[in-house]
Amino acid sequence: MRRAQFLASSAVIFSFIIFVLYGNHILVNVSNRRLMPNTILFLEAQGQPQTDDIGILNGVGREFLPSFKNPCWYEERKNNHELGKVAAYYISTTKPLLLSKCHYKRQSDMILRCLPYFFLIGQPKCATTDVFRRINLHPDVVEPIVKGPHWWTRKRYGPPYASRPVTFSEYLDVFNAPKIEENTRCDKTLHRWSNEKITGDGSTSTLWDSSPTMSYLYKIMSSDTQSISGKLFSRWHISHSVFEKTSGYVGMNTRHDPKSKNVIQNLQEVKYLQYYQYKDEVVLPFTVANVIHSVLPNSRIIAVIREPVSRLYSSYLFFTKKTSLSPETFDRNVKDSIQKWQDCTRQYSDRTCAYNKTLQNSLGVRLHNGLYSLFLRDWLKVFHKDQILVLRMEDYHQNVAETIISIYRHLGLRALTEEEEKVVNMAPVLNKNWKKPTIGKMLESSEKILKEFYKPYNRDLADLLKDSRYEWEDIYLKSEELNASHLTASSYA
Ligand SMILES: *[C@@H]1O[C@H](CO)[C@@H](O)[C@H](O)[C@H]1NC(C)=O
Ligand SMILES: *[C@@H]1O[C@H](CO)[C@@H](O)[C@H](O)[C@H]1NC(C)=O
């Protein structure tokens, strides 16, 4: 009898050891399958280990912990801060039997690493600082160390966006993984670990600033077009018919480029290097949305946008040197920028011009930032519409509490208790424009041309989102009423 027990328990211990070894092995294999080997090898061959690659190194290949809501994994702590081997800790999904007790402890040399669960992608000057802060006030949201790391769009590419390329590992450091880990508990009913905490990236360049990504993809595609574009396209969840309707995505970017009928075929035919002398003007069908989707396909996306004319003025006040600020300078810049925009769109599609960095940099006012539909359309091509929540800043200001609740719902966060809700709603409004110089409203002439300029794009946006609020008629009506009653300050200036 004793002997039988001994044998039985030895067998259990033995199979446990085998399981731990083998279980690890399985997970490692699974993760390897998710890698995009060609892409990675290609970059290593190019000798650009610092810039990482579109597969975000081997790190992307790992499986995220199934019991964490936020995309996280364990890796070996390494002094040189490089990505370590995949650790198979919360092995819950593969062998539930062994997890009934939930008492696996992680080894001390393993650390939790996390990517963001959600992205607040835009737009600058649309109250995103305040929105982001209120999201972070939810007890299940862990605030990152910086609101906008701008890693996907800019910093990973180094100069001129950062003094050197910011590594993937440094980006991960932005997310407070120990804080996320704190809450890990044993779910007695499911017999596994569970963790509901999430964290987010609030970089407001993410929606629109895809030019560095395009230049980079272009560089690596120029000798491996088929493989990389094939991979990015294979992630597209909609049919390519969307592309056929809109010309000018690839090739020479011309409006009437007959080749853009079949994008994949086109990508294979085009030898990018021959067409682009200036890398800032490379415009590809892929944006930073494709790259994020290839790594984090389940991301929740939030975009806050605002009536584009007032957004532009606010952005002008914020980003221009104080000494040169005046409604007259703004007016001149507006006219000049619209001229440049029209010169571009005579030759190229709206989309091509919107992503053209040379053009963006030459504009005295950031006109392109208000062309919401052009950028959002690209996000909607990659992510399912249910994954993207678009909000108007005006509605947010009108009803902060209700808007925040809709954001929590979008992020799958639990409803707050009354007490918790008070904390979120009572928090003072954060506004980086508080020291905005008082130079008064924009000139009527600027307002008039800008409204005309944005009108077709607003309509396009209303069509895209199937919501007439995005023509901002209510806001325009309100400002006219204000004008009529001789109230000077426009609340949206
Ligand atoms: C980009 O903008 C620059 C400056 O406006 C212009 O000269 C160039 O033709 C544009 N190129 C594309 C591809 O849009
Ligand atoms: C404001 O009122 C003035 C004079 O009444 C008018 O000329 C102007 O067009 C109005 N502006 C707007 C934005 O309605």
TrEMBL record:
InterPro entries: CS_Sulfotransferase (IPR052654), P-loop_NTPase (IPR027417), Sulfotransferase_dom (IPR000863)
GO molecular-function terms, A-Z: N-acetylgalactosamine 4-sulfate 6-O-sulfotransferase activity
Name of the molecule in the record: Sulfotransferase domain-containing protein
Superkingdom of this protein's organism: Eukaryota
Membrane-spanning intervals of the chain: 6-28
Pfam families according to UniProt: Sulfotransfer_1
GO biological process: hexose biosynthetic process
Key words, A-Z: Membrane, Transmembrane, Transmembrane helix
Domain Sulfotransferase: from-to ranges: 296-426
